[in-house]
Specification:
Helix 1 crosses helix 2, helix 1 packs antiparallel against helix 7 and helix 2 packs across helix 8. By secondary structure, this protein is of the alpha+beta class. It binds iron/sulfur cluster (2 copies).
Length: 276
């Protein structure tokens, strides 16, 4: 992966051209950064477009093999699932809600508050908060995610079965590409959901970058707790570093995740060949 190069045209900003190599293809982009420090939450906003581009590449490549993505506008059965966020993404959602016009902001905040009250009454709030623990097992995670889904709490951003924050929806929503019938999404634990693998996993890369600069390890913040968690952890919004170091760190984590994924896939295909 190529990293960055300062532009001399503006004294306070630099434009970092980045080239990202994914198994799905290459992405070339430019990211404007301030000279000096940058907050990771701002970088999280800027990287969303790249998460979408990788997902689009995967979608196009799969379509050529007759594997069509079932997701389409107005099909939102998945939007009552637990959406896992990294800390910068939770802070990003918080800031986005804060930037909304007053009446819409109040509506959205009210939806979050109703959901939290419901979770508390059902004894699920503490369980969802446990997902922040980096030592939580996959099994426990899946059990909590299933219990959450059973409550059928629509995402506060779902309006008339459509995502009302399409441009800033979290990376997990962008990278969730289902090729099985949309009907199966009503039963995520039923084993009938097939997804296309997307290698970028932006949320994981952001979580690792955040952990490396804040020295706080947080596994997952469910989207439904994004406002609550960010309010209780105000430092998450200001966590940042020298802008170049921050971008370099994030790109490094993306690269590590992609390489690890390629090794896993190569290992699986080798194991498959041996069995033949
Ligand atoms: S994940 Fe399932 S329910 Fe959600 S948009 Fe895709 S096909 Fe529809
Ligand atoms: S952010 Fe949008 S796409 Fe993601 S769960 Fe909420 S409504 Fe659905």
């Amino acid at each position: 992966m190529e990293r960055h190069q300062a532009s001399s045209t503006t004294p306070k900003t630099l434009v970092a051209p980045i080239t990202l190599d994914f198994p799905e293809g290459k992405i070339e982009a430019e990211i404007a950064l301030p000279l000096g420090t940058e907050r990771l939450v701002v970088l999280a906003f800027k990287m969303l477009e790249i998460s979408s581009e990788v997902a689009d590449m995967v979608t196009r490549a799969a379509a050529k093999l007759d594997r069509k993505v079932s997701c389409k506008k107005g099909c939102g059965a998945c939007c009552c699932q637990l959406v896992p966020l990294s800390p910068p993404e939770a802070a990003m959602i918080f800031e986005f809600v804060e930037s909304m016009p007053e009446s819409r902001k109040n509506e959205v905040k009210n939806c979050f508050a109703i959901a939290i009250r419901h979770l508390k009454e059902r004894g699920l709030l503490g369980k969802l908060e446990r997902l922040q623990n980096p030592l939580i097992s996959e099994e426990e995670y899946n059990t909590i995610a299933r219990e959450y889904f059973q409550e059928r709490i629509d995402c506060p951003f779902l309006v008339k079965k459509c995502c009302s924050i399409h441009d800033v929806r979290p990376s997990m929503c962008r990278e969730y590409l289902v090729i099985s019938p949309a009907e199966n999404c009503k039963n995520p634990g039923g084993g009938g959901i097939s997804r296309l693998p997307v290698s970028i996993r932006l949320s994981e890369a952001l979580a690792r970058t955040w952990a490396s600069i804040s020295r706080k390890h947080v596994q997952v913040i469910p989207l439904i707790l994004a406002l609550k968690w960010t309010t209780e952890n105000e430092y998450a919004r200001s966590t940042g570093d020298d802008s170049i170091r921050l971008l370099t760190s994030l790109l490094g984590h993306i690269s590590d995740i992609v390489n690890k994924r390629e090794c896993e896939l190569a290992g699986r295909s080798k194991a498959g060949n041996k069995q033949k």
